[in-house]
Write a structure and sequence with these properties.
Shape: globular
CATH superfamily: P-loop containing nucleotide triphosphate hydrolases
Oligomer: single chain
CATH architecture: 3-Layer(aba) Sandwich
CATH topology: Rossmann fold
Order of helices and strands: EHEHHHEHEHHEH
Distance between the termini: 11 Å
Largest sheet: 5 strands, parallel
Strand content: 5-15%
Length: 183
């Protein structure tokens, strides 16, 4: 059974790869960003709480994100496996997720998509999004490195981290991910 967390810098292709793998494996792709947007749109209790933070430009607290993830992992389609991207982003969130998975009697693996910063900057500038200025991208990378590097160590210490070179074509990265998941 595949339960997988995809890590990697912004612009590494986590969302795209998670969607492709989820389709191939017939399991849900769980994106916390998408779940938050859906919860807000559906005006669920968690969505209403999250909106209070989002509308002020604040980060949604870990507890709310964990409630969202707990709800999602308890849905029937997630019982046969899942692929998650966008969560956890910090060691504190990873520890929360670890506890939740223990409650559910589940384990997960973590794959880090490694992409050099210069490649990320180039890719993100190529997307042509208005908020993707070089300065903004470099700031996001700095935050990513300070918050997520300890997260990579967290999973490495648990022997549940594998890495994939994300600086290749979409197809080559997908093939490497499929091989890792199959092993």
């Amino acid at each position: 059974m595949t339960r997988l967390i995809l890590l990697g810098p912004p612009g590494a292709g986590k969302g795209t790869q998670a969607q492709v793998l989820a389709e191939v494996l017939g399991i849900p792709h769980i994106s916390t960003g998408e779940m938050l947007r859906n919860a807000v749109a559906a005006k669920t209790p968690v969505g209403e709480k999250a909106l209070g933070y989002i509308s002020k430009g604040e980060l949604v607290p870990d507890e709310l994100l964990l409630d969202l993830v707990r709800d999602r992992l308890s849905q029937p389609d997630a019982h046969k496996g899942w692929i998650m991207d966008g969560f956890p982003r910090t060691v504190k969130q990873a520890a929360f997720l670890d506890e939740l998975l223990q409650e559910l009697n589940e384990t997960c693996e973590c794959i880090n998509l490694e992409v050099p910063d210069e490649v990320v900057v180039e890719r993100m500038l190529g997307r042509g999004r208005p908020d993707d200025t070089e300065e903004a991208i470099r700031t996001r990378l700095k935050v990513y490195h300070s918050e997520t590097t300890p997260l990579i160590d967290f999973y490495r210490e648990r022997s549940s981290l594998k890495s994939v070179n994300g600086d290749r074509s979409l197809e080559e990265v997908t093939e490497s991910l499929k091989q890792l998941v199959a092993s």
